[in-house]
Write a structure and sequence with these properties.
This protein is α+β, with helices and mostly antiparallel strands. It has helices at about 1-35, 150-155, and strands at about 55, 55-60, 65-70, 75-80, 95-100, 105-110, 140-150, 165-170, 180-189. A hairpin with a 5-residue loop joins strand 8 and strand 9.
Amino acid sequence: MSGKGTKMKSQVGMKKSLVLSLTFVVVAFATLIIFGTVSWSADYPTSSVPPTIIAPVDIKPGYCPNSLEVYGSGDVSVAILGTQELDVSEIARDSVRLQEITPLRSERRDVAKPFRLYKWQVSGNKVKEDYCTDEGPDGKFDLILYFSREEILKAVGSTRDGDILVLRVTARHKSGAPIVGQDVVVIQK
């Protein structure tokens, strides 16, 4: 009987261990759900990848719709708009790209207020030409970048007059966080 009793005690011990292990897992998952998986901080090299910053972008600040003339001349201005959450002086300028194109030059000044739908994520036929802003300065510095019209047209490929395209801007915050933003242009031939 002592062999059977030992076996039962062993099974009870295993069940307790299993219950404790499952309790630990449940508490761990609950903690992750409530507090997030890993908090990010630039001060700790072991932290996870920082979250992506969605930035408002204005192609051809001051104009809406944003026309992209196929036979036009000159550079195209694109502004990453400063907000309460985004200080544009914290953007690594050498990391900024529009459709993978490097800007020719850049400057900082206040040119536009963000469009109310700047966090939208649409493409294709859901885009409207008036998904932009022509509102002027809002008191926050913006990062204005100038891109070659020819390079933009080469990057977007074949187009027709009146096509509405979403152009994407990517960059990196000095903290390491990726930055993305987008705006629409209307092709004019």
